Protein: Phosphonate metabolism transcriptional regulator PhnF
Organism: Tabrizicola piscis
Amino acid sequence: MGRDNWKIIRDRISAEISAGELEPGAQLPTESQLCQTFQAGRHSVRRAVAALAVEGKLRVEQGRGTFVQAAPLISYHIGRRTRFRQNLLEQGIAPAGEQLADAIVPASARVAAELGLAEGSPVHRLLRRGLADWVPINIGLSYHCAARFPDLAAQRTGGASVTDIYRSHGIADYFRKRTIVFARRPDAEEAGLLMQHPDQPVLVLQKTDVDAAGRPIGYSEAVWAADRVQFSFDSQDEGDAAPEGAADV
């Protein structure tokens, strides 16, 4: 091999993944074994693996090894009514979520403006991770007025959906007021939680939900693994709201 050794290695591993010879979740041979297989140096092997990790085809886990990424590509529909659970179930994908942290904090200027509160008002700050077929696809921060929803964190910890919590507080239906989407690189914690390479981009969705009267009830900022989802935006109402899952993003 010549000076483009790493490209040859990258393309051959990529071809094996595409052909199904390396199945999702399969562990690659060790770095030494790859060097022997491709008759190449460690630098070339590392560069090829890093490139495939950035493309989302491989996942490098420190202390464990390198694995073929097994994330499903999700088509996520966003409209006036958007529910995480419904989006995934309609595609035959199992939705799940886990609460990573919760606290009551003073509302920042941004959060207060989105929720129609005075700056510094107490709000629930919940950090959650959404999964599709047990693969991480997003992490999200959500904010809700602590006075209006005093038991929200406890209910979420107990497995209740946001939709159910809203209903328990007299909110029969709710809508997405706006969605802002932009791309950036993840920080180290985000990349770790999403199990992706830190050079691989993420999509950030900021949204505000309102009740039937148009009053803000929730604000969230979700970070999505960009290679595991594609978004479509619907201009028409989707009909009756469906039960919502572990991550309302």
User: Anything to note?
Assistant: The beta strands are 58-61, 65-68, 74-78, 95-106, 122-132, 135-145, 174-184, 202-211, 216-225, 229-233. Residues 238-247 have pLDDT under 50 and may be disordered. The first helix runs from residue 5 to 18.
